[in-house]
């Protein structure tokens, strides 16, 4: 009886556009009734991410291959997969550009710092310590952007983790920008890469 009430509530939420709330209820119902095709159909219709949509679709296809929803859902899945592929490609390109620009900025910071340290002689002014900090930031930037560049060259197997990583690298670069302003372009591209990577997972 409780399941029937929850099912009715979830369908009402879905019909009023509150898909995320509906999905959570349908998901809990699917754990109790894993063979219920109607629940899986609603899960597909309200799924917030591509991976969750694919999972629901596969369950319907397994349980009832002749279900009337299959053709419609298959068409939607194909469109979503094509869109996700384009967005992931865009994210990869932006990430590569961000990594390249970030590396240039980091290398410039490191070389500039080393030259300043080598060419200077005591007594050093109080602000000279910033040169060492700049050098450290240059090293951190080189490591972070090198890994970011490498990750961007790979086709992401998990776009959620991929976009989270790009956001992290972009955030780190953003923090470094107050001393290394020319890294802002790498930061922008990394943040855009993260945005496109995350967008590719959404339905």
Explain what the structure shows:
- This protein has helices at 2-15, 19-32, 37-46, 50-63, 69-119, 129-153, 159-176, 184-199.
- The model has no long low-confidence stretch (mean pLDDT 79).
- With 203 residues, it is mainly α.
- It is elongated, with a radius of gyration of 25 Å.
- It folds into two domains: 2-67, Serine Threonine Protein Phosphatase 5, Tetratricopeptide repeat (Alpha Horseshoe), CATH 1.25.40.10; 83-199.
- Helix 1 (2-15) runs antiparallel to helix 2 (19-32).
- The protein has eight helices and no strands.
List keywords for this structure.
Serine Threonine Protein Phosphatase 5, Tetratricopeptide repeat, 2 domains, 203 residues, mainly alpha
CA-based gyration radius = 25 Å
Q: How do the SSEs run, as a string of H and E?
A: HHHHHHHH
The helix content is over 70%
Strand tally, please?
0
**What's the total helix number?**
8
Note the beta-strand portion: under 5%
Number of domains: 2
Structural class: mainly alpha
Sheet with most strands: none
Terminal CA distance: 32 Å
Mean pLDDT: 79
Given as residue ranges, the uncertain stretches (5+ residues, pLDDT < 50) are none
Estimate the global geometry from the Cα principal axes: elongated
């Amino acid at each position: 009886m409780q399941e029937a009430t929850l099912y009715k509530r979830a369908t009402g939420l879905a019909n009023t556009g509150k898909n995320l709330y509906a999905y959570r209820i349908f998901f809990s119902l699917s754990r109790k009734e894993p063979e219920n095709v109607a629940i899986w159909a609603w899960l597909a219709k309200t799924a917030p991410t591509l991976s969750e949509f694919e999972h629901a679709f596969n369950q319907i296809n397994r349980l009832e291959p002749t279900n009337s929803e299959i053709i419609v859902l298959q068409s939607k899945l194909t469109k979503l997969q094509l869109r996700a592929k384009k967005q992931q490609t865009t994210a990869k390109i932006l990430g590569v550009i961000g990594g390249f620009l970030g590396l240039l900025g980091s290398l410039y910071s490191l070389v500039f710092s080393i030259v300043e340290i080598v060419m200077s002689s005591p007594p050093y002014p109080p602000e000279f310590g910033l040169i060492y900090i700049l050098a450290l930031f240059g090293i951190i930037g080189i490591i972070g952007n090198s890994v970011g560049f490498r990750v961007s060259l790979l086709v992401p197997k998990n776009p959620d983790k991929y976009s989270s990583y790009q956001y992290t690298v972009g955030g780190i670069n953003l923090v470094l920008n107050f001393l290394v302003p020319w890294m802002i372009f790498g930061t922008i591209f990394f943040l855009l890469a993260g945005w496109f990577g995350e967008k590719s997972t959404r339905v």
